[in-house]
Design brief:
7-stranded mixed beta sheet, two-stranded antiparallel sheet, 187 residues, Alpha-Beta Plaits, globular
Length: 187
């Protein structure tokens, strides 16, 4: 009786996880956003944010993902498939590539991190080690880069459309152990 009363409070992880229960998380934001905002001015920056948000929503939906959180230029999306999450990241990079104002030296770039793992859900958000790890990987990315965990690479490396290059081994704050990160050659 108590369990059935609590069920509506617990998110349905089944809709965002793979058959083995893993969730693929993609975090993205605009590299050097504050510099870009200053350069573009408030009106153009706000328009860029609206366009960027619409683009992310469209790409995530196209790959059967779910946008979990957005804040200004940053997004957190989940996918039930590592392949879908990585395809979405590549599509987002390709769609966003290029200058915002026609000047090559002022090009805007998105930075993306993708990781697959098991998460803890509460009514408002996803929690746990793998959420932190996805965030730390995304924070290492530079504009125009897609960085992925070794777990994500293992799930997707048999797909010939993905090419990976070692990026480094990291000890991330708040996550035990050493983590190998790969750069995705998406061009």
């Amino acid at each position: 009786m108590i369990a059935s009363a609590l069920e509506p409070l617990i998110p349905d992880l089944g809709r965002i996880s793979s058959p083995d229960g893993a969730v693929t998380l993609m975090l993205s934001d605009i590299a050097n956003a504050s510099i870009a905002a200053d350069r573009l001015g408030p009106e153009r920056w706000e328009q860029l944010l609206r366009d960027h948000s619409a683009l992310v929503e469209q790409v995530v939906a196209h790959h059967d993902g779910e946008l979990l959180k957005s804040e200004r230029d940053g997004f957190l999306a989940s996918f039930s498939s590592a392949h879908a999450g990585l395809h979405a990241a590549v599509e987002l990079q390709r769609a966003f590539t290029g200058p915002a104002d026609g000047a090559e030296d002022h090009a805007l770039a998105v930075r993306i991190g993708v990781h697959s793992g098991f998460v803890i859900a509460n009514p408002d958000q996803l929690l746990g080690r793998n959420v932190v790890l996805a965030s730390r990987i995304a924070a290492q990315a530079k504009g125009g880069e897609i960085l992925v965990s070794s777990t994500l690479k293992q799930y997707t490396e048999q797909d010939p459309s993905f090419r990976f290059e070692p990026h480094g081994e990291y000890h991330f704050k708040g996550v035990l152990g050493e983590h190998v990160v790969y750069l995705v050659d998406w061009r």
